[in-house]
Design a protein that fits this description.
alpha/beta; Rossmann fold; six-stranded parallel sheet; 12 strands; 41% helix
Length: 315
């Protein structure tokens, strides 16, 4: 099975990385619903003659579906919704209308967690859940971590780019309050000023053992507990990586993270009080068993391949 990626937008930061992974990539600055965008889409479809077109966009979803249908009415269309979109008011009405019209053109609608599925039921949808997966190397890291034994002095690990939604400040303030060491892996470009201030204080106090964009492997091997205080998610791969490696985790009790509450070593907190988070970070189990969900790539890709085959057979 081969794939071709059409990247639509003004910035394509992962294009070269995707090419290095072995995929062919076309990029365009023109939205798919515009005449220039449809022209690029038509060129791609004519050149590669796809069996299935897989849409990942949330923005202008309905226009994108219409554009695909204008280019080729026969090709099956699959869509994945990646996040919990807490739509209200006009946004809710817009998403509902797009679901009622656009979903008629779909052969399958996929989501990465039961939390996203529950949210989409608000819009009359009944999507199929296919959990995200992690690289195979994280399963190898699990063996290394298990062999070395848990480090009770390891840092609190946060993985992800700073943003209002990620809300890293809750866990960072808890760590500062308790003099806990921290590994913060991710970009601070969109960090709140308060978050940067806490990171700076942790660094001055000698408590920040890693900071910035990096491979999370070393932090996950050395860390004692993983923290994710997000306001909402979809199905974060970073959390799945931590669970696969064998880290306990403290997460916010929010949509997009609740699927993990039944996994070994996961504690979910409704409170955003740093003192409550500190108690939880200190109190988690040191050693946890493997997750009950199969996060291997071969499982996820096989489930998607089955969706594609079924779409083609129904055509």
């Amino acid at each position: 099975m081969q794939g071709h990626v059409l990247g639509v937008g003004t910035d394509h930061p992962f294009a070269e990385e995707i090419r290095r992974a072995g995929y062919s990539v076309t990029t365009t600055d023109h939205p798919a619903h515009t005449s220039p965008g449809r022209r690029v889409l038509r060129q791609v479809v004519s050149a590669f003659r796809p069996d299935v077109i897989h849409i990942h966009t949330e923005r202008r979803y309905l226009q994108t579906v219409f554009s695909v249908r204008k280019v080729d009415r026969r090709v099956p269309v699959v869509r994945t919704i990646h996040n919990v979109f807490d739509a209200h008011g006009r946004w809710f009405a817009s998403r509902l209308l797009q679901a009622l019209i656009g979903d008629r053109a779909l052969s399958a609608l996929i989501v990465p967690s039961p939390d996203v599925a529950r949210n989409e039921k608000r819009f009359g949808r009944d999507p199929q859940v296919i959990f995200n997966w992690v690289e195979d190397r994280f399963f190898e890291l699990a063996g290394s971590r298990s062999g070395a034994g848990p480090d009770t002095t390891g840092p609190v690990v946060l993985v992800g780019n700073c943003s209002r939604i990620k809300s890293h400040g809750v866990a960072l303030e808890a760590a500062l309050l308790g003099n806990l060491r921290v590994a913060h892996i991710g970009s601070e470009e969109h960090a709140e000023p308060a978050e940067r201030a806490i990171l700076d204080r942790l660094q001055r106090n000698g408590l920040l053992v890693a900071r910035g964009v990096a491979d999370p492997a070393d932090a996950l091997l050395a860390g004692r507990v993983f923290a994710m205080p997000s306001r909402h998610e979809g199905m974060p791969v970073a959390l799945a990586e931590a669970l696969v490696v064998g880290m306990p985790a403290v997460v916010a009790d929010v949509p997009g993270l609740r699927w993990a509450t039944g996994e070994p070593g996961v504690v979910a907190l409704a409170s955003r009080d740093p003192a409550v988070w500190l108690d939880a970070l200190r109190g988690v189990a040191v050693s946890v068993s493997a997750p009950t969900i199969d996060f291997r790539a071969r499982r996820g890709t096989a489930e998607y391949a089955a969706v594609y085959r079924a779409a083609v057979e129904r055509r």
